[in-house]
Design goal:
The complex is a heterodimer of chains A (404) and B (332).
Chain A (H helix, E strand, L loop, with lengths): L1 H28 L8 H6 L7 H10 L6 H10 L6 E3 L2 E3 L4 E13 L5 E13 L29 H36 L4 H15 L2 H18 L18 E5 L2 E5 L4 H35 L2 H8 L4 H22 L1 H7 L2 H6 L5 H10 L3 H29 L7
Antiparallel strand pairs in A: 1-2, 3-4, 5-6
Chain B lengths: L1 H13 L7 H11 L1 H18 L1 H4 L18 E2 L6 E2 L10 H37 L1 H16 L2 H14 L8 H11 L3 H34 L2 H8 L4 H38 L10 H8 L11 H25 L6
Antiparallel strand pairs in B: 1-2
Classes of the chains: A mainly alpha (404), B mainly alpha (332).
């Protein structure tokens, strides 16, 4: 087991490095990005952007460094200055970037004009990196500074400010989904082909086909819009954000009560809609899963043996069947871990929930690559960890499985 | 002479029930699934509407009626006598026509994504499963890892890159023209849809490849494959004539469930603004646009939202029915 864990640990490091490189490549190899529109801006007389401004902007986004150096600076925070060994500067004449690229415009045989970089007027050397702002490297937990959303503030701050809200939403919905989904699945499996089972499987099927965004909008429509625009007796629930900006009044049976902005009641009311959307969607999928794995175990010979021994049905179901049926289910629940961190992107966006999912969405829309990459990278690390936890969990839950 | 008569007698004795081809067996089993049959009918209706979109929709997608914003359902256009069955949207485009064209675009994107991802998945899975070795280990490890990462963040990051840099991937002009013909778009507009197909299929083949590899691995040990090999059949012959046809059942089921997944995924991307953008109608971006008018017109989100839900549900039911019909062991 120890040997297995050590081997797995090294595999994990390799996978994390590859996924870091891949997520970096996706965002940095594509043209455009944060300096898109800079070229047009230089040609407009309104902005008066000088050559120095462009060099400064390119240096801010580290675009004046070649890609491998940019990547290592992002990953491990190296190089940050001249490489000195024994008072001698090594690679002093190796250019690691280009401060002032020379562009040429070419015409191809179809008559299309293309602009390409053809040379370099002024190179960047290791020594010119000294004094430049640099992160300690993603691998050491420093994700650099945000570019747009919270300019020049550490990405870590931004993520930590959003994380509690996402954990609140994800944790509550997973808790409720487990509390509802497991009993529903068990009950439905025990009473297979009963009327309850029929209604339950149909509803679960509907629920797992329901797109989250449509479901979310329907909930807002039902509980936030309709109580305001019609006289239907539907309780009002706030549709968005995590707490209200100002006090509001909601009808409560025959009277009306005022909710103080930011009070506990206010925060709970804001949680209800997003949590129920996430819960219902997970319950639909999970209970179907529990049901089918329960049914599979109920067909096994050892369950028949247990019944033949004369054990009472409760012991057969909970001790012999459920424990075995939950083994595959445990892996599914473990894999919601990276999902929680990444946040429920769609649900958080619909309900303007200030969590990680919405942060990721905003970061992509605003070209705030350090934020987007940080979230993607942490998600990948959590995924790898979840895989390991799953494999270890297997050995605990199912003693038949042994790793060498 | 005597031998022949014997055979004839045997034949007449043996045929007591009507012989069924495998296809007929599947069809008979599929018919038993009532919801799947109903869903199949529904899908045929939606596809027919999409196919004849130019005949059914009275207006063009981008036909603007300045000043006629949010006209009520069934308003007749005074100049041409055409009817706005579902009124117009906030900038005066006919809602019903946009919905019909949107269906054609959304379904084409889903269908092409399923087709491409299945082709890639079958090829990669069959190769990895049949030949094994280093390629198998590396590729399948990679597939396994990508499959465990939550897919929406990946879809979003790739499609946001491609949508903001449409020229990043060179797409041959004939492809754009053909895609444009299918979706009734100009080649220029079709580029966006093709990019979304690339994104969806680019992540969609992973599951198919894993499924295919598993099936091929188990088929490789079957006696009929061994028999074929001992007869001197080439690898290509074994893979294409024996293995792939035998491995198709789970792939067909996965493709049908995949249609539901792609319809929703495309709608989700367009809804979030990282998919097909506004002048081109899709159910997703139409739903997204209704959000700001919800307070005045609460019914509005239902119009583009229900088709997404119904299509997803119908494809899921058909997939469920196909699973029951093709492989009763897999019944959930």
């Amino acid at each position: 087991m120890t040997g297995y864990l050590i081997r797995r640990f090294f595999q994990m490091i390799v996978v994390v490095l590859i996924s870091a490189a891949a997520s970096y490549a996706i965002l940095n190899l594509a043209p455009g990005g944060p300096t898109a529109g800079l070229r047009q801006a230089t040609q407009s007389s309104r902005f008066r952007i000088t050559q120095e401004d462009i060099q400064r902007i390119r240096a801010y986004f580290e675009l004046d460094l070649y890609l491998p150096y940019r990547f290592t600076r992002w990953l491990i925070g190296w190089p940050t200055g001249p490489i000195m060994i024994g008072g001698q500067e090594l690679f002093a004449n190796t250019p690691i970037g280009c401060r002032k690229p020379v562009e040429g415009t070419f015409v191809d045989d179809k008559g299309n004009y293309t602009t390409r970089v053809i040379g370099c007027d002024e190179y960047v050397y290791f020594s010119s990196l000294e004094g430049r702002r640099a992160s300690r490297g993603v691998l050491f937990g420093d994700f650099g500074n945000s570019w747009r959303l919270n300019r020049d503030r550490p990405v870590t701050d931004l993520i930590l400010s959003r994380l509690p809200k996402t954990l609140q939403l994800g944790g509550l919905s997973i808790l409720f989904a487990l509390l509802l989904g497991i009993p529903l699945g068990i009950y439905s499996a025990i009473h297979q082909y009963s009327r309850f089972d029929y209604i339950f499987t149909t509803l679960a099927f509907l629920g797992s086909s329901m797109p989250t965004f449509f479901f979310g909008i329907m909930m807002i429509l039902l509980f936030s819009v309709l109580p305001r625009v019609s006289d239907l007796p539907i309780p009002y629930l706030p549709p968005g954000s995590a707490e209200a900006v100002r006090d509001y009044v909601i009808p409560f049976f025959t009277t009306e009560i005022t909710i103080k902005a930011g009070s506990l009641t206010d925060r709970i009311l804001h949680l209800i809609l997003p949590v129920s959307v996430l819960t219902i969607i997970s319950v639909a999928g999970w209970s179907r899963y529990i049901r089918s794995s329960m049914l599979e175990v109920l067909r096994q010979d050892y369950v028949r043996t247990a019944r033949a021994k004369g054990l009472i049905e409760r012991v057969v179901i909970f001790k012999h069947t459920l424990r075995n049926a939950l083994i595959p289910f445990a892996t599914i629940v473990v894999f919601t871990l990276p999902g929680i961190f990444g946040g429920a992107i769609i649900t958080e966006t619909i309900f303007s929930w200030p969590g990680m999912g919405r942060l990721y969405f905003l970061a992509l829309g605003d070209y705030d690559y350090p934020v987007a990459m940080a979230i993607l990278f942490i998600t990948a690390v959590l995924t790898v960890t979840a895989t390991l936890i799953r494999d270890i969990l297997y050995t605990i839950l199912d003693p038949r499985i042994r790793y060498k | 002479m005597t031998n022949q008569t014997k055979v004839a007698v045997l034949e007449t004795d043996a045929i007591t029930t009507k012989e069924e081809t495998p296809f007929q067996i599947v069809l008979r089993r599929f018919r038993k699934h009532k919801m799947a049959m109903f869903s199949l009918g529904l899908i045929i209706v939606v596809f027919t509407i999409s196919l004849f979109a130019p005949l059914i929709a009275p207006f063009q997608v981008d036909e603007l009626f300045v000043g006629k914003y949010f006209v009520p359902w069934g308003t007749v256009d005074s100049e041409s006598g055409r009817v706005h069955y579902m009124g117009t949207d906030n900038i005066g485009r006919d809602y019903f026509s946009r919905l019909v064209y949107a269906g054609r675009i959304s379904l084409s994107v889903a269908l092409l994504s399923v087709f491409i991802s299945s082709l890639i998945g079958i090829a990669v899975g069959a190769y990895a499963g049949y030949y094994g070795g280093l390629v198998d280990t590396l590729v399948m490890r990679f597939v396994e890892f990508l499959l465990t990462i939550p897919d929406l963040p990946l879809l979003l990051i790739i499609s946001s890159m491609l949508i903001s840099n449409p020229e990043a991937i060179p797409i041959p002009q004939p492809v754009l023209t053909v895609a444009g013909k299918i979706m009734l778009l100009s080649p220029f507009q079709a580029r966006q849809a093709v990019l979304i197909i690339i994104v969806l299929a680019g992540l969609g083949w992973l599951g198919i490849a894993q499924l295919m590899r598993g099936t091929i691995l188990s088929l490789r040990e079957q006696t009929f494959v061994e028999a074929s090999r001992s007869l001197g059949a080439s690898d290509a012959h074994i893979i294409f004539r024996h293995m792939i046809p035998n491995a198709m059942a789970p792939i067909i089921v996965a493709a049908s469930l995949g249609m539901a997944g792609y319809v929703v995924a495309e709608a989700a991307l367009s809804f979030l603004g990282f998919g097909i953008q506004d002048p081109t109608p899709t159910w997703g971006n139409m739903l997204s646009a209704t959000q700001q008018f919800m307070l005045d017109r609460p019914y509005l989100p239902l119009v583009p939202g229900l088709p997404i839900f119904i299509c997803a549900l119908a494809f899921n039911y058909v997939g469920d029915g196909l699973r029951d019909a093709l492989d009763p062991r897999l019944k959930m």
